[in-house]
Specification:
The structure is a homodimer.
Chain A lengths: L9 H11 L2 H6 L9 H29 L2 E2 L5 E2 L4 H10 L18 H14 L1 H20 L5 H9 L3 E6 L15 E4 L5 E12 L8 E9 L10 E7 L1 E3 L5 E4 L2 E6 L10 E6 L6 E5 L5 H37 L1 E4 L11 E3 L4 H33 L3 H37 L1 H4 L5 H8 L9 H11 L7 H48 L3 H6 L1 H31 L3 H28 L14
Parallel strand pairs in A: 3-6
Antiparallel strand pairs in A: 1-2, 4-5, 5-11, 5-12, 6-7, 7-12, 8-9, 10-11, 13-14
GO molecular function, one term (chains A, B): flavin adenine dinucleotide binding
Protein name (chains A, B): Acyl-CoA dehydrogenase
Keywords (chains A, B): FAD, Flavoprotein, Oxidoreductase
Chain lengths: 602, 602
């Protein structure tokens, strides 16, 4: 029977960070990171891996089984072991790896943060949600909160003394944030409002890990306009606090109940009542009516975080499945299937199991590469003094964020489902780790903007910025990279993927044409297929890049399995995944409007 | 908020059964069914729909939450309401609709049984598993059990007084049934053996619905050969019984524990100990070493049953999602997205929601059509006196069974996942019905032979029978049907799907060529993609057929939404699904062997 222990592909993380992206060199050019080097990064990853394995992985399955509990009085208890794990991560500064060290963070590059997130979320996604939302909220407060206290608050959050949440959704306002009805009435005290309403699906709306919780709440001030533009953002603490952070009275933001759900049972999903019995005080963040803009500062980062979750679960699932397939003995080699005396073999030897594992490997490794490339763009964007360069880098992040969020979460789910299939019947039972991963990762396609919303953001907004400027900038770079690969001896696969890039561009043009012809429904119906196609093409380009780097390294390091694997990844991608991207391109350009017939779904 | 009530597409069932397949006419030609007519069938479906809605749907979510419990003494308690529902279905004769009426069944055609299964499994799959396995085991006993008692036993099972199970899997023998180690030692009593061993994953291994349970157990007699050919089949009752069926002593087949699992919580998944503390008596079914052959009688029927489960969940999920999308008001029409004053609309109006629903609709309706066509083949096969005709029909069922099992279960899962996405955040929480469907249906890709095993059965066995005779017979019929569609005015889609049929044939030839070249691993690595491609092509042909029938009916019945929908289904299939089948064909013929590199997964 398998040991089914959690593991991390540290060697592949090193390959991507150092061999492929030369992250240590790119980061050395950024003043904030000038004193960090490869050795520091490797030591950080090694310690992160240990924490993931020793501290978080052991609480994942028990936390899933136990779930959170609610006392009916507004208080949530997290599963056994969560508080102890929070303390361990808190003391080591692992909750906010890329927050400024002068404010209690660890001052690491975002790219290293993403590596750590892969490990820690892969080990226990439900637990890490508390950290992710806390850090996201802290950044908004640090940038736009009350000047006198913003640093104090952010420090308490970055260090995990206080928690944070984002409160957008209401029962009648999920994807349509603009339908928010929560009200905020000014008081005599400047900047202080009384909030009334009910928010739902609030992750970490209450928990017993931190002494206080700061909710960021979207609400509408009196006489504000309809839609998203009439929304303002408020900082709503669980407990009031003074300028030094000493806690005062309980505020009127209270959890009314928690949801039973498919997965992430260790993460409390709360209905949060504001006002009602007890006044709920909130402090305006930024200006009135600036709420959606500020919330999107947090949301954009959160979307990258969700893409990382999708990948983290994929990586964990693949590693479990690979480990299981190597240990589980069953059936004879297909070459000896007719011999009664042939020995039984590990199932990793069966071709269909290898096909499943290969699919998982290619996706997990290509997503890792894609996310870390993106993370370095974020690091460079934050660091540059050149406004034009910052705008270009920001544009790249803006373009890719919805694609990565949608692709890594949908593919992450598929990889987890594939891991269940490798385990067979054992994959379906709770004794083994993979069915939980399927249930946990499913939320990633839904929250922080459903993947349908991501696709509409891409097709309806990002593709249209500057007349397609972001897309054209990306495409030129992609074609350059593929041309370099052709030059370097990978002509076959590089050209195959280049054709997909062309088809992607033609698909984008086609959708733009539909828009111009006022066939906006027909265009938006293709938004998800287009986003998926774009995501697959991005993954394919990473496969090319990795194969190129691996080929170069093999000249000095020989045929290390990891390096040989990169060539195989590319072959598999071109043979088995690229045709799906091409098929999507054909669908997108089909002009099909069948689903729009009003006779349907009646 | 949505009512989220369970519903059945009765109108589409009528369309398929009567308008498309003329099942009532086909069945009228079968003597056993000569006295049945369309009116009887419609009344039966109407009552089945009522039972599904009123009796089973209400116990589905509570049973999922409560699950089965085990007392540590071998006894399983099913969730609240299961016993009452069992009595209702038992009294009405709904547990074994197609079993002979002279033995307690309802004597209905298998095609009608499949319609009822769609409704009843869709309403509560976990509950219906007890019935399905009982009926399957009863059929084996009726055909091959002890002559003196087989009818008595079968009657008790068909009427739901006794239950039944199939016991193949052991901890070291899942997909490799031939590795079974359970032992059977003859006693002095003829035909009676003492069994020793442990079976796992036994659905319904114990329950509190029936007074007795008859396990069908694979075990190895002394000196029997290795592999599947040394296995014999035994009838192992929970309680001994006499020739009249009066119960005697408790037999030594006892549940040792039940599994926690991802879904189907209402169905007990048991570890069954045989022997040990207490002798376990079993009666040989058929001859020694005939076990696998007899078990496959049950297994083949069970595989069709699992395909029906996959479709049933898809149909239920689509109906939930459609109902929710029509009721859930959120967001403005995309045409008015910039107007703050535009009214909010039901989400069914949003193009991406329509795309998701359309995908679900096409799959659910095409699977229904495919399964009922297959069910009628089974009915005709059972009825015919002509050995050649029987062999031909049997061959068709043999060819299609693994494809339908794999396709309907994988697609059923995808449809359920799509339904969750339509619900958005609400889809993820237990208060709404769809996340349970995802968890329940996932087992269908695994049990009764994983979908990888189905694919190996198709490519390694079924395609090779008679030098490809089954495939050629199917292809000729398919081409004939497509030619007729072309003739009747559907040239575009029929030819597009015809090209996919050609590519499927070329893919089959390609795999055969790999086999001949002794590249058996490379061939088997494509077994699952080939099976999926075949399944998609089958679904496409059903779309063509349905569009053809609908076009004819529109001449007299006008543009009924159901009829218009069939034309739209075909358009959507050709635009959005067929390209995926083509892409698979390209993958299959890629000669890719990347995943076979021994450097990988080490």
């Amino acid at each position: 029977m398998s040991t089914t222990s959690f593991s991390v592909d540290l060697r592949d993380l090193h390959f991507v960070l150092f061999d492929q992206l030369a992250a240590h060199e790119q980061l050395a050019a950024i003043p904030r990171f000038a004193e960090l080097d490869r050795e520091v990064y490797e030591a950080t990853l090694a310690e992160g891996e240990r924490l993931a394995r020793e501290v978080l992985a052991p609480i994942n399955a028990p936390g899933d089984l136990e779930g959170c509990s609610f006392d009916g009085q507004g208080n949530v208890t997290t599963p056994k072991g969560y508080r102890e794990a929070w303390e361990v991560l808190r003391e080591g500064g692992w909750l906010a790896p890329s927050a400024p060290s002068e404010l209690g963070g660890s001052g690491l590059p975002f790219a290293v943060h993403v590596c750590l997130s892969e490990m820690l979320c892969g080990a226990c996604m439900a637990f890490m949600m508390y950290a992710g939302l806390t850090v996201g909220a802290a950044r908004v407060i640090l940038g736009h909160g009350p000047e006198a206290t913003r640093e104090m608050i952010a420090r308490k959050m970055f260090t995990g003394e206080w928690g944070g949440t984002m409160c957008l959704t209401e029962a009648g306002a999920g994807s349509s944030v603009g339908d928010n009805r929560c009200r905020a009435t000014p008081t005599d005290e400047p900047g202080v409002y009384l909030l009334e309403g009910e928010k739902i699906f609030i992750s970490g709306g209450d928990q017993d890990l931190t002494t206080n919780i700061v909710h960021l709440v979207l609400a509408r001030t009196p006489n504000a306009g309809k839609g998203t533009k009439g929304l303002s953002l408020f900082m709503v603490p669980k407990y009031e606090f003074d300028a030094g952070g000493a806690l005062g009275a309980r505020n009127g933001a209270k959890v009314l109940r928690i949801e039973e759900k498919m997965g992430i049972h260790g993460s409390s999903t709360c209905v949060l009542g504001l006002g009602g019995d007890q006044p709920c005080r909130g402090v305006l963040i930024g200006q009135e009516n600036q709420g959606i803009e500020l919330m999107f500062l947090m949301m954009n980062e959160a979307r990258i975080g969700v893409a990382v979750q999708g990948h983290a679960i994929a990586a964990a699932a693949y590693n479990y499945a690979r480990g299981y397939a190597r240990e589980r003995i069953q059936g004879q080699s297909i070459r000896e299937a007719r011999s009664q005396d042939a020995p039984s073999v590990p199932i990793v030897q069966h071709p269909d199991v290898r096909r499943m594992l290969m699919t998982q490997k290619v996706y997990a490794e290509a997503m890792r590469s894609l996310l870390l490339r993106m993370a370095l763009v974020v690091d460079r964007e934050h660091a540059t003094d050149d406004p034009a360069e910052r705008e270009r880098l920001r544009g790249r992040v803006d373009l890719l964020t919805p694609i990565l969020k949608a692709t890594c979460t949908d593919v992450g789910f598929e990889v987890a489902v594939g891991a269940v299939q490798v385990y067979g019947g054992y994959g379906y039972i709770g004794e083994y780790p993979v069915e939980q991963l399927v249930r946990d990762v499913k939320i990633c396609s839904i929250y922080e903007g459903t993947n349908g919303i991501q696709a509409m953001d891409l097709v309806g907004r990002k593709l249209r910025i500057g007349g397609g400027a972001l897309f054209i900038d990306w495409m030129q770079e992609a074609q350059g990279r593929l041309a370099a690969a052709t030059e370097a001896g990978l002509a076959g696969p590089a050209e195959a993927i280049g054709k997909a890039v062309q088809l992607l561009a033609a698909s984008a043009m086609h959708l733009a044409g539909l828009g111009k012809a006022r066939k906006v429904e027909a265009a938006m119906m293709q938004a998800v297929p287009f986003t998926r196609m774009f995501g697959l093409v991005l993954l394919g380009i990473e496969c090319v890049e990795q194969a190129l780097v691996a080929a170069r390294l093999r000249q000095t390091r020989g045929d290390e399995p990891l390096l040989v694997g990169k060539q195989r990844n590319l072959e598999f991608f071109v043979a088995a995944i690229l045709p799906q991207a091409i098929a999507l391109g054909k669908s997108i350009q089909s002009n099909d409007e069948s689903a729009l017939d009003p006779a349907l779904f009646a």
